[in-house]
Amino acid sequence: MRVFVTGGTGLIGSAVVAELLGSGHTVLALARSDASALAAEAAGAEPLRGALADLDILRTGAAQADGVIHLAFANDFSSPDALAQAVAEESAAIAALGEELVGSDRPFVTVSGTPYVPGRVSAETDPPMTDGPVGGRGRAVTAALGLASHGVRSTAVRLPRTVHNQGTGGFAGLLTDIARRTGVSGYPGDGAQRWPAVHALDTAVLFRLALERAPAGSSWHAVADEGDSVRDIAAVIGRRLDMPVKSVSSQTYGPLGPIFATDQPSSSTHTRQELGWEPKHPSLLEDLENIQP
């Protein structure tokens, strides 16, 4: 299968591209810079120059492919306005890609987050989050899943709060970056809130499985660890960086503060049973041992 991938040179995307190529697929990768194009070529993919905001380029990529995996996101959490702009850009991109695939029965794999369900572990049958600072991402993916009734085999892989590899990535990676900047490995509140996590290499396998066999309109959870307490995550970061570990204001995390403070464990039982996905790589707490002082 020839697969058009956006975000193919990031932490998750590079793992997905390698997984696809290793399984006999070919990859057309969106590349927003010369460096990204060279990285895509080095990985064995064909680059397509353009940014996520270039909707005509996205349509061209989708038109040339047998399936699409969308991973790109600006990841600008510096301010509410910057985050809103990133969400709006992605929403327009998802809509453009979906429109190009209408009536083709080709697979369209999108990304959303595991949902927050008060008082229990969330499951694949729970609706996506459509409120809050990143609620627009949930609304865009919901619209993409709705294309199942318009001849698109659309499906969503829901990512946990941290997708990691070699001690970097995700919300845990943001905690590490903030610790380096402030000299304190902090956590909001009492730190008992739980975050699910998964290794990037395990995530890549799930994206491939979703591309190859997931039915239209389905959602899947890329969750290996149902929920590590943020206090435990911060403790490993503090030990690795030789910094004090303590509670800090949720304002430390900017527009993501409310999400950082929320208990949001998640399950992947249905995903494992239906797609035969089984995580094999190190857990988050194990992987954080790779943080370099």
From TrEMBL:
<dbReference type="Pfam" id="PF01370">
    <property type="entry name" value="Epimerase"/>
</dbReference>
<dbReference type="InterPro" id="IPR036291">
    <property type="entry name" value="NAD(P)-bd_dom_sf"/>
</dbReference>
<dbReference type="GO" id="GO:0004029">
    <property type="term" value="F:aldehyde dehydrogenase (NAD+) activity"/>
</dbReference>
<dbReference type="GO" id="GO:0005737">
    <property type="term" value="C:cytoplasm"/>
</dbReference>
<feature type="domain" description="NAD-dependent epimerase/dehydratase">
    <location>
        <begin position="3"/>
        <end position="75"/>
    </location>
</feature>
<feature type="region of interest" description="Disordered">
    <location>
        <begin position="260"/>
        <end position="293"/>
    </location>
</feature>
<feature type="compositionally biased region" description="Basic and acidic residues">
    <location>
        <begin position="271"/>
        <end position="284"/>
    </location>
</feature>
<dbReference type="InterPro" id="IPR051783">
    <property type="entry name" value="NAD(P)-dependent_oxidoreduct"/>
</dbReference>
<protein>
    <submittedName>
        <fullName>NAD-dependent epimerase/dehydratase</fullName>
    </submittedName>
</protein>
<dbReference type="InterPro" id="IPR001509">
    <property type="entry name" value="Epimerase_deHydtase"/>
</dbReference>
